[in-house]
């Protein structure tokens, strides 16, 4: 009788492990989709004038609706999976209890067992089932919490590719003549290549050599939802770069003193190129050069040597002091 009463326990434990993994995966996907929905709404509302100026309301509504529909589908699947798990567990325990009741009453009728001992055993076993039911629910919730916390700590432990350290104080100052030391980019010999009108061009202030760049990919569900919303699915994938490729084998050289205008349709990568020049990102492929040498300065030090005027100024609750743009020394030592 004890073996019959414990027959459902291994099945319940195995089912709990599988259900916890499935429900946890759906819960994480649901969190990712909710984050994508919030990101789309925040981005559109913060730039509503730009969206309306480009008549992109329908496109943004399609993006938002696609992510929202995907979130509802995942939520429905999660509710169905959790309900099925609970009902299947209850059915298994009740079926075992019913079989135990039939076996016990048969033993009582035959005289092999007294009614008091049988009812006591069944009462203790039902309390054990109630505790087992509560423990499986706790395990399922704990498993989901651990999975979600793993994603959280993965985000915390990510190491940025563009490291912004504190400005290192000058530890060695020249006591005699000669140029002061600097940790900035290296300035190479002047380039005497002729320009478009045949004039001698100076050293390149900014140069991109065969640069390819792609932003970090979003979640798979959001990417699939966006592709379904556009209806074409022909966006060029970034391959090993990650997300959709923005820049591909771009080479650009801007000499000192030259004014350059970037002209192209929306989404061509103009703003991305400016962000690369400001070192908000580093290219995955190719080199970003300054003063004929690959960029080696730290991000904060690099941005303090630049001035920029945004196309659409933003109102902020605090005031930022513009960078001083201190002139670079005429000759910089090699690192």
Automatic annotation (TrEMBL):
Bias class Low complexity marks the residues at 291-323
Q: Where in the cell is it found?
A: Membrane
Q: Where is this region: Disordered?
A: 164-200, 284-335
A single Pfam family it belongs to is ABC_membrane
Q: Which Gene Ontology cellular-component terms appear in the entry?
A: membrane
* Ranges where the ABC transmembrane type-1 domain occurs: 1-139
Keywords (alphabetical) are: ATP-binding, Membrane, Nucleotide-binding, Signal, Transmembrane, Transmembrane helix
Q: Does the keyword Nucleotide-binding apply?
A: yes
Q: What is its main location?
A: membrane
Q: Where does the signal peptide begin and end?
A: 1-22
* UniProt GO molecular function: ABC-type transporter activity; ATP binding; ATP hydrolysis activity
- Look up the domain of life of the source: Eukaryota
- Name the membrane topology term: Multi-pass membrane protein
Q: Could you confirm whether the keyword Magnesium appears in this record?
A: no
What protein name applies here? ATP-binding cassette sub-family B member 5, putative
Q: Which organism is the protein's source?
A: Eimeria tenella
């Amino acid at each position: 009788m004890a073996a019959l009463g414990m027959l459902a326990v291994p099945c319940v434990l195995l089912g709990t492990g599988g259900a916890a993994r499935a429900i946890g995966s759906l819960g994480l996907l649901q969190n990712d989709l909710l984050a994508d929905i919030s990101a789309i709404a925040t981005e559109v509302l913060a730039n509503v004038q730009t969206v309306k100026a480009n008549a992109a309301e329908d496109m943004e509504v399609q993006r938002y609706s696609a992510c929202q529909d995907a979130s509802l589908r995942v939520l429905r699947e999660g509710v169905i999976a959790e309900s099925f798990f609970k009902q299947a567990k209850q059915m298994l325990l009740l079926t075992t209890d019913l079989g135990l009741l039939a076996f016990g009453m048969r033993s009582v009728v035959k005289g092999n067992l007294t009614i008091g001992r049988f009812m006591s055993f069944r009462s203790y076993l039902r309390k054990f089932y109630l505790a087992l039911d509560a423990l499986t629910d706790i395990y399922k919730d704990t498993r989901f919490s651990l999975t979600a916390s793993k994603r959280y700590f993965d985000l915390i432990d990510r190491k940025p590719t563009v490291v912004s350290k504190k400005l290192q104080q000058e530890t060695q100052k020249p006591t005699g003549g000669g140029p002061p030391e600097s940790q900035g980019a290296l300035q190479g010999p002047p380039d005497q290549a002729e320009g478009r009108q045949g004039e001698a061009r100076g050293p390149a202030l900014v140069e991109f050599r065969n640069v390819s760049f792609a932003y970090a990919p979003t979640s798979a569900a959001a990417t699939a939802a966006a592709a379904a919303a556009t209806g074409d699915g022909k966006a060029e994938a970034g391959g090993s770069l990650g997300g959709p490729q923005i820049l591909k084998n771009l080479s650009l050289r801007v000499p000192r003193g030259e004014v350059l205008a970037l002209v192209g349709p929306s989404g061509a990568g103009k703003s991305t190129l400016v962000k690369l020049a400001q070192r908000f990102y580093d290219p995955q492929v190719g080199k970003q050069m300054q003063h004929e040498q690959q960029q080696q300065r730290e991000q904060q030090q690099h941005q303090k040597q630049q001035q920029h005027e945004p196309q659409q100024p933003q109102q902020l609750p605090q005031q930022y002091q513009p960078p001083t743009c201190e002139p670079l020394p005429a000759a910089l030592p090699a690192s």
